[in-house]
């Protein structure tokens, strides 16, 4: 059977070689005789309020596009899929409570979540308690797939994988000494540790490591220290709204050093819109190239997704977040189809046989973590882009 490159869609623009192989397409669209006929419920645990609300909303809207696309083809196992969407309020305690509700009250056999690393880590004990799998679409803390939770399957790169992909670029960019300013949570601290380790191995000196609370708006004290440092580069990990504030405050302070943000911590188009010229020259690691669809692993699928996103009236800026929700739901749907069941244990087992080309690379899971309790980790593409004159460009290295 030909390997799938995209879940089937009815849009005329997607009829040119983007469908699934016949066998899996039939599995998606039909179920066994006597099977249940109600919708298959998929939990969605994302931040829709709080500091990460913009990103979580983008992810949810991408998930809705995937659900609509799959349902237009007859659903999975002959049943429609239904997204049960809950707001974790950008709060770890809420994220854990949402997970428990989705499993026990809403009876979802699988979920997607939870955007931030601290949010996902808070959810993970609930997954083990209730033996329910979760597709992790955004979180990058290494602990998520190395702590021994076999119910976790991640399509976003951990910070260590980002650092590994960035390593060949270090000498070409000319990094000599690097300072960090990161959000004070598992995501930010993990990124600083993983990138610092890689940079040290490459002979780059590590200077200051400054942190900021996720709701902080005045980073002048930390930025003053960074301005006085002899480092040539500042690496930043934070969400887009805080990044915007950082760039504006750096500009006001006259802090003119090379800036690189780690993947998952930015939305370049939103930064351009909100920070204006203060963002010019900044470099960003990203896992999706919507500005250059022809350079993505699945150009036709990328073009379709961007077209559908725009048709729904959403801002283009959201595409770099929303694609994760889109690929996340498509991954879950393929696992359910391969399981031939909505039983949580069978879906968990079926994740290991998922294999298709997502918008940012091949989605298939390798084992990560302690033997016998491995999590699943996919390996997406990682790119470096630069904001130049209000445009996103790919620097020549």
TrEMBL record:
- Asked whether the keyword Hydrolase is assigned, the reply is no
Can you supply a Gene Ontology BP term from the record? amino acid transport
**Domain Leucine-binding protein residue range list:** 39-368
- Cross-referenced Gene3D superfamilies: 3.40.50.2300
Signal peptide start and end residues: 1-35
Q: Which UniProt keywords apply?
A: Amino-acid transport, Signal, Transport
Record InterPro entries? BCAA_transport, Leu-bd, Leu_Ile_Val-bd, Peripla_BP_I
Where would one find coiled-coil regions in this protein?
Answer: none
Xref: Pfam families: Peripla_BP_6
Name the family the entry cites.
Answer: Belongs to the leucine-binding protein family.
Q: Which PANTHER family match?
A: LEUCINE-SPECIFIC-BINDING PROTEIN, PERIPLASMIC BINDING PROTEIN OF ABC TRANSPORTER FOR NATURAL AMINO ACIDS
Name of this protein: Amino acid ABC transporter substrate-binding protein
Show the taxonomic lineage. Answer: Bacteria, Pseudomonadati, Pseudomonadota, Alphaproteobacteria, Hyphomicrobiales
């Amino acid at each position: 059977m030909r390997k799938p490159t995209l879940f089937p869609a009815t849009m005329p623009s997607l009829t040119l070689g983007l469908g699934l192989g016949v066998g899996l397409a039939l599995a998606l669209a039909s179920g066994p005789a006597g099977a249940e006929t109600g919708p298959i419920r998929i939990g969605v645990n994302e931040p829709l309020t709080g500091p990460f609300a913009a990103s979580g909303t983008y992810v949810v809207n991408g998930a809705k596009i995937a659900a609509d696309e799959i349902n237009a083809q007859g659903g999975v196992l002959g049943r429609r899929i239904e997204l049960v969407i809950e707001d974790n309020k950008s709060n770890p305690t809420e994220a854990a409570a949402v997970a428990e509700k989705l499993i026990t009250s809403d009876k979802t056999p699988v979920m997607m979540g939870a955007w931030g690393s601290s949010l996902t880590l808070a959810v993970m004990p609930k997954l083990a308690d209730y033996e329910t799998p979760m597709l992790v679409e955004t979180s990058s803390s290494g602990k998520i797939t190395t702590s021994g939770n076999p119910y976790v399957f991640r399509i976003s790169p951990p910070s260590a994988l980002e650092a590994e992909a960035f390593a060949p670029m270090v000498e070409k960019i000319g990094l000599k000494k690097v300072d960090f300013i990161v959000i004070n949570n598992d995501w930010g601290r993990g990124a600083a540790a993983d990138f610092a380790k890689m940079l040290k191995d490459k002979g780059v000196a590590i200077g200051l490591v400054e942190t900021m609370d996720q709701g902080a708006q005045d980073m002048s004290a930390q930025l003053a220290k960074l301005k006085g440092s002899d480092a040539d580069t500042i690496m930043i990990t934070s969400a887009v709204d805080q990044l915007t504030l950082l760039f504006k405050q750096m500009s006001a302070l006259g802090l003119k050093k090379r800036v690189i943000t780690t993947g998952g911590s930015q939305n370049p188009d939103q930064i351009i819109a909100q920070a204006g010229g203060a963002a010019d020259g900044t470099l960003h690691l990203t896992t999706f190239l919507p500005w250059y669809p022809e350079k993505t692993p699945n150009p036709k699928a990328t073009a379709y997704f961007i077209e559908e996103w725009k048709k729904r009236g959403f801002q283009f800026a959201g595409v770099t977040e929303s694609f994760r929700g889109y690929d996340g739901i498509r991954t879950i749907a393929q696992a359910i189809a391969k399981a031939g069941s909505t039983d949580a244990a069978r879906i968990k087992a079926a994740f290991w046989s998922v294999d298709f080309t997502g918008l940012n690379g091949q989605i298939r899971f390798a084992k990560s973590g302690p033997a016998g309790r491995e999590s699943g980790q996919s390996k997406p593409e990682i790119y470096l882009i630069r904001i130049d004159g209000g445009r996103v460009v790919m620097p020549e290295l």
